[in-house]
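Page 47, continued from p. 46.
Same chain as before, 297 aa.
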Amino acid sequence: MINKTNLFFGSASDTLFLAWMSMIMAFIATLILAGGLISYATISDWERSVSGAITVQIPTYDREGKPRGDVVQEDVETALMILRTSDGIKGATVLDDNQMATLMQPWLAPNTVIQELPLPQLIDVEIDHAAPPHIKQIQADLAEQVPQAVLDSHRFWLDSLVRLAHNMLKMIGFILVLLTLTTTFTVIYATRASLTVHESVINLVHMMGANDFFIIRQYAWHSMKQTFLGALFGFLLAIPLIIGVSFFLRTFSNDTALAIGLTSWHWGILAFIPVILAILGFLTAYKTVDCYLKRFL
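Result:
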């Protein structure tokens, strides 16, 4: 429990300055950290969901638009042999016309005859999640024996997306460090301003027998209290905004990637923001007053 201080720390506006700044810092930090946690969870979900998504396309028309005829079937058989004999592949199946029609339904007009379209033969590949295949080796084998084949693995574009997400997380970390430094300098400024204004009171307290630790403790507890209350209010203000954005994303799209929200342990991490800022305020004020008393008194 935070003890009530015995020193006078100035007017309400001076006293609440630190609380207001802590509220702003906590509000921004909560939103940024929540965005980082959601981004990390989204990328992890994508990575799990597409880790085994591999397809192989065999074109049925050449680059000049002419049918490739029986060569297509030969390429399909060769591609199936390569895939089924590769380590990490559980199975490979050629999609029939009905499956292709179902797959293409969102982009086709009603009553479209699938056979009249220049669609490639599509091979759906099932991989072993416990021992994934070497994608580049399979791609090299297909390029050597079936030059027309196109291997499509979501892993290629996902890797770029993951790198982008990691860079974004680094930026979020950098911003959080800046917010921490800003809070630290705010506490230093507020504490030193109070020490300057109340220098006569501090001298009087010294003359009455109070030691340095008493004064340091008073300022440290006061800073901790103001920082915690401000940060807590900022955290509470950010909660409705986070919930509102999450609800909007779920309503706006049925895509599970956009529907990911914060879990209980995410909220637990966010709840530590006011506590961390309060501890930061306590330690910063403690060190600031200690240095001030050693230097001037």
